[in-house]
Amino acid sequence: MANLGALGRALSHRDARLFFAASLTSWTGLWVHRIAISWLAWQMTGSAFWVGMVAFCDLAPAVVFSPIAGAVADRMDRVRLTMLAQSAIALQAAMVAGLIFSGELTIGLLLVLEVFSGIAASFSQPARQSLMPSLVPRADLPAAVACNSLCFNVARFIGPAIAGPLIAVGGVVPAVLLNCTAYLIATLTMPLLRVDPAQRRGHAPEASVWAEAIAGFRYAGGHPGIGPLLGFAAVASILMRGVQEILPPFVERIFLRGPDGLAMLTACIGIGALFSGLWVANRGRVEGTTALAVGAVGVQALATIGFVATGVFPFALFCAAIMGAAGSVHGISTQTLVQNAADPAMRGRVLSLWGMITRACPALGALVLGGLGEVLGLRLPTFLAMLLALGVLAWGLRRLPSMARVLEDRREAPVTAR
Q1: Three-class secondary structure of residue 274 per DSSP
Q2: pLDDT tens digit at each of 418 positions of the chain
Q3: Is the distance from CB of 386 to CB of 304 less than 8 angstroms?
Q4: What domains sit in the chain, N to C, each tagged with a CATH number?
Q5: pTM greater than 0.85 (yes/no)
Q6: Separation in Å, CA 60 to CA 54, 121, 360, 361, 363
Q7: DSSP E strands, 286-394
Q8: Using CA atoms, how far apart are residues 183 and 396, in angstroms rounded to an integer?
Q9: Cα gap 94→145, rounded to integer Å
């Protein structure tokens, strides 16, 4: 562990190792599930719009439920809330597998079940992530946040590598059941964490859940660093992440490939994210992180332009790896800054807003891109979205110095609402 630098220090703590092992397990199952369901939706409908709609139904519930979930995570036992939410995700996967096996699954039922899973994930994310500062000393928090994102991106590599052959040999059912098993395993590890009782809950209830959820919005919006950073991340995510959420139409229409091509592209995204995540994790410091969060958006936009501009599959794989690397740098850096700057009593609510951005914004982007793709083709809408993303980058670069001063210095993170 010592040879791993900052990452090794974060992993030297017993609870951190247990937490991240469970995260890697559940997220591997999640990526297998996503590949399987997106391919199933494409087979059922042959429509980029419906593939986008499936992604939308999984991710969009965060718009409504993430702020509520953040308020709940700040007042409820976070370990227990995580267990309940993860169990619900496992149940949804079991139901999907059963309906596929029986031949009763329709696209409508699939959409309903994906909404159910999305609601559960909206509660799981802030509850689980709010536990992280209790697993490592504060000095190791940037590396721990990076390690958390690293686990997600390792899973994004492993999951497709498993999903492609598994779907080709056994179909979609075994892939979905693997996700069910993975989330059950992750749920059963939660009671093993030795979390300080004071860290299991943010604060005693002070008002209604709705009032505290609104207070979370006010706090984030009024914060001179967190508000602009989350706004920047939200717009960039809407414009850029839709491509990754509806890969099957790109795979079949542009590159003329099947499930193997889908798995390879997704795995390349994960490989890029893995290596960039390792680099960010071993930085082990907050200074300069705001510049990484902003600059990575430009790199991702340019890589996405390269991805859709070519019909050459090997070059597309390279661009996909760059997309994954830039997305990982942006995500890790943003979450590190939010964890560093947020008041502890507001942490669950602020992280729920980050969760809403990472789930709802890609869903909206996927839905719009899928709809436009049916009318204009996939390339033109993607080009236009990337040009807009570069415009957002210009705004972020102008705000960079003021955001960095607040986000990278914990002493300047005021509490403006409660």
Answers
A1: helix
A2: 444 566 777 788 888 899 999 999 999 999 899 889 888 888 888 887 888 788 788 877 877 787 788 778 777 888 889 999 999 999 999 999 999 999 899 999 999 999 999 899 888 888 888 788 778 887 777 778 778 777 876 787 678 778 878 887 888 899 999 999 999 999 999 999 887 776 676 655 666 777 877 888 888 888 889 999 999 999 999 999 888 878 888 888 888 887 778 878 878 887 888 788 788 877 767 888 999 999 999 999 999 999 998 888 999 999 999 998 999 899 888 988 887 888 877 877 787 788 788 877 887 888 888 888 888 888 899 999 999 999 999 999 999 999 999 888 754 443 333 3
A3: yes
A4: 2-187+208-410 (1.20.1250.20)
A5: no
A6: 10, 11, 4, 8, 6
A7: none
A8: 37
A9: 30
User: Residue 276 and residue 55: Cα distance in Å, rounded?
Assistant: 25
Of 122, 132, 23, 145, nearest to 71 by C-alpha is: 122
User: Which residues are CB-contacts of 384 (< 8 A; sequence separation ≥ 6)?
Assistant: none
**How is residue 136 written in tokens?**
């490592």
Q: Are 146 and 281 in contact (CB under 8 A)?
A: yes
